[in-house]
Structure formats: structure tokens, C-alpha cells
Design a protein that fits this description.
Layout (H helix, E strand, L loop, with lengths): L3 H17 L9 E5 L8 E4 L8 E2 L12 H14 L7 H5 L2 H14 L3 E5 L2 H12 L4 E6 L4 H10 L3 E5 L4 H13 L4 E7 L11 H10 L8 E6 L14 H4 L8 E5 L9 E5 L1 H10 L1 H4 L6 H14 L2 H23 L3 E2 L6 E5 L3 H13 L2 E2 L1 E3 L10 E5 L6 H12 L4
Parallel strand pairs: 3-13, 5-6, 5-7, 7-8, 8-9
Antiparallel strand pairs: 1-2, 4-10, 9-10, 11-12, 12-15, 14-15
Helix pairs in contact: 2-12, 4-12, 5-6, 7-8, 13-15
Length: 410
């Protein structure tokens, strides 16, 4: 059946996105990975760019584990044993022993009773928040929380929804008091651990104090949910993420994270008390009706976690911190504005849309891939370039990027 009018409406929307400069545009297609050498990290070839190698400063693979031979081997061996895909959702016949072992290992890593894996971190956040929010729940959310949290709250339809200014704990305290006064049965405070556009992170110890202070005001408790997808295996001496970095081990009542960033594989997960996990298994549609990650991915993720939770992992994390500090100091020495922090997301704050775009083009023309952030991804005046340091990077890689930045004449 012809749908010309629909297609015209969609084309108009696309034109609007392009004219506002908010369209994502064509994706860069990686065609090959050139392995690391003694003096430089891996380089990437892109479709249509010939044999020009690119240094990737826009990857969430903070420890470079996706290219580790032992991680790849774990996935390959398990795929040969079980096949390329799970074959069904978990309640039918899609649960494998490697899925359960990974969940147990994740729970132990975070010091929780139980774990539960989802097909992605985005699915985890929606899968956890929507069932946990009732018609008598108040949700209080940080203004800079990730899109997955924003959309989960839209789907959940709580009794009350409050958004507090970024890291403004006085406002968080006031909103919890307001929700209690309005007779809400349950309160969910939701925050990112690391805020992925800026690299800053939530003071979980202080947030926990505010939440616990209001706990008795709600018949079904005040509950802290933390999405630490950018923190786990990238922050803290042993990679336990924002809880470790802030000295607040076990702060989150429900801790969400990902297997697809620093752990280098695919999928998401939540760790919590066993009762909460069992409830989510029975009520989260994105778990019940979606295939899990493949057995091979589960085995690869477990191998990555074993690396992180070892002396080698601590060495990788130490190197990551060293390279992050080198890059951050280099930006300051060049006269650029940044947001200081320990996390390997290092923003170069530009504050102008046109200059941001020009600097991203200059970087790419000189073999460096980085992400420009403009409105509405970030507020007006916060336009920036997000650089992401990896343990794959060598000192020479960092210095190369700084040299290219220093040559920018815009």
C-alpha cells in the first residue's frame, strides 16, 4: 500500500534535524583494526578512507579488553560449544550455564547477593526502573541523567516525578521531603554514577546520607538506583566504579552497569538483593521477552571480569589513570578548558557549535576520532568535544592528539 504522505512527513522531520544541526548523519564504518605496537596503540581503518589509520579517542572500551586474545578466545570456544546464539528467551530454553556463572561472578564482584543480565545496558535500565515504579512511587532524578533513565521514567508513569539540578543535593533533599508530604508510598532516587558527557561522577556517599535520612518517611522505603555503566571497570583502584571512587561501597540498592563498555563485550546487568532480583525476573518485560546475550558473549564477559579483578587489571587501571592525567594536563597546558576529574572521559569545553564542529573536522583530518557534543545533547553554552582515554593508549598516542590540537588555528 502506498505511504507517500507518511514518507513525506518523515522526510520533513529529517530535513528539520539536518537544518538544526542535530542529525546524527552517516555512521563511520570500521573495516579493519591494526594491532598495537610497542610504541602506539591500535589504529582503525574506515570505509572510504583508504589505508589512512585513525587513532580512536571516542570508544567506551576503557581497558581495551575487546581486543584481548584471551577474551576473544573465551567467546570463540564457548560459541563452538553452544552455538552462535541462545536460540530462545531465557524462560523457554535460552539460559546456559555460562549465563548463570556470569551473574554469580558479577554479584560477587560488587558484593551483592544476586545478579541479572540483560541484552544491553539500555534495556537493563528500562527493565529495572519500570517494574520498580508503581502508581504510588515518587521518582527523583538528576538533571543530567542518561537518556535511558529519562525514557524509563516516561514509560513508568510514577505518581510524582522530580528532576533536581545536577548534583544539587539540597534540592534532592527538598524533593524527597515534598514526595513524603504528598503521601507517596515509595521513593526512587535515580542517578548516573559517571555522567558520560562530562566525566564527573555522583558523590554517592553524600547522596546515600540524604536518601537514608528520608527512608522512614516512606512505607516502602527510599531506594537508591545507580546506573554506573561508565564507571565500572574504569574508575576506582580495583574497577568497582563510582562506589569505590567515592568510598561508598554498597551504596546503591540497585546497581546497574554494562558489559559493553570497559568490559569490552556486550550486554547489561543489575546486581541487588536476591528478592529484588527474583522480582525483576518475573516482571521485567525486557528480560522475559528478549533473548539474552549469546553464551559466547557471556563467557567473554566473564573472562574480562576476571582480568579486571586481578593484579593485571589493577595495572591496566593504573595505566589508564596515568594516560588520563597526561591528556588532561596537556589540554590545560595548551590553554583549553576542561572539567577536571579521574574518569577517562575528558571533555574539551568549546562553548560554540561552529567551533566545536570545526575542531572535530580538524582532528579527523589529522587521523584522530573524537565526538563533538552540541545542543540538544548538551545544553547551550556547554558545547564540547568528548575525548575518551583507554588503557590501550600509549604516551605517544596522547602526545599525538595534543600535537594535533595544538595545531588547530580556529
Amino acid at each position: 500500500m502506498p505511504v507517500e504522505r507518511l514518507l513525506q512527513a518523515l522526510a520533513t522531520e529529517l530535513d528539520s534535524l539536518r537544518s538544526k544541526g542535530t542529525a546524527k548523519g552517516a555512521e563511520k564504518v570500521v573495516t579493519a583494526v591494526l594491532p598495537a605496537t610497542d610504541d602506539r596503540g591500535p589504529r582503525f581503518l574506515l570505509e572510504g578512507r583508504g589505508d589512512r589509520p585513525f587513532l580512536r579517542m571516542n570508544s567506551n572500551s576503557y581497558l581495551g579488553l575487546s581486543l584481548r586474545p584471551e577474551v576473544i578466545q573465551a567467546e570463540e570456544e564457548t560459541s563452538r560449544r553452544y552455538g552462535a546464539g541462545p536460540g530462545a528467551v531465557r524462560f523457554i530454553s535460552g539460559t546456559y550455564d555460562v549465563h548463570q556463572r556470569l551473574e554469580q561472578r558479577l554479584a560477587a564482584f560488587h558484593g551483592r547477593e544476586a545478579g541479572m543480565i540483560f541484552s544491553s545496558a539500555y534495556a537493563t535500565t528500562l527493565g529495572v526502573l519500570v517494574p520498580m515504579i508503581t502508581a504510588e512511587t515518587a521518582v527523583i532524578s538528576d538533571a543530567l541523567n542518561h537518556n535511558c533513565i529519562i525514557n524509563a521514567l516516561r514509560l513508568a508513569r510514577p505518581k510524582e516525578k522530580h528532576v533536581y539540578a545536577h548534583l544539587d543535593l539540597d534540592e534532592l533533599d527538598a524533593r524527597l521531603g515534598e514526595a513524603a508530604a504528598n503521601g507517596c508510598a515509595r521513593a526512587l532516587v535515580v542517578t548516573d554514577g559517571v555522567f558520560s558527557m562530562r566525566g564527573d561522577y555522583a558523590p554517592l556517599g553524600e547522596i546515600t546520607e540524604v536518601v537514608r535520612r528520608h527512608d522512614d518517611d516512606f512505607p516502602e522505603n527510599a531506594v537508591l538506583v545507580v546506573d554506573d555503566s561508565h564507571g565500572v571497570a574504569a574508575l576506582g583502584e580495583t574497577g568497582r566504579g563510582t562506589e569505590e571512587a567515592t568510598g561508598a561501597a554498597g551504596a546503591a540498592d540497585l546497581l546497574i552497569a554494562t558489559l559493553g563498555k570497559a568490559l569490552g563485550v556486550n550486554g547489561g546487568y543489575v546486581v541487588a538483593d536476591r528478592v529484588a532480583r527474583d522480582y525483576l525476573r518475573e516482571t521485567a518485560p525486557l528480560y522475559i521477552y528478549s533473548n539474552p546475550i549469546t553464551p559466547g558473549e557471556a563467557a567473554a564477559a566473564q573472562r574480562s571480569l576476571e582480568i579486571v579483578d586481578s593484579e593485571e587489571g589493577r595495572s591496566l587501571l593504573a595505566h589508564l589513570r596515568k594516560m588520563t592525567a597526561r591528556f588532561e594536563q596537556g589540554l590545560v597546558d595548551l590553554g583549553f578548558e576542561t572539567i577536571p576529574g579521574d574518569h577517562p572521559v575528558v571533555p574539551l569545553v568549546v562553548r560554540e557549535t561552529e567551533k566545536t564542529a570545526a575542531l572535530v573536522r580538524h582532528l579527523e583530518e589529522n587521523g584522530v576520532l573524537a565526538t563533538g557534543l552540541n545542543f540538544p545533547v548538551v545544553p547551550h553554552g556547554d558545547q564540547s568535544i568528548r575525548f575518551q582515554v583507554s588503557a590501550e593508549h600509549k604516551a605517544g598516542d596522547i602526545d599525538e592528539v595534543l600535537r594535533v590540537l595544538g595545531e588547530f588555528g580556529g
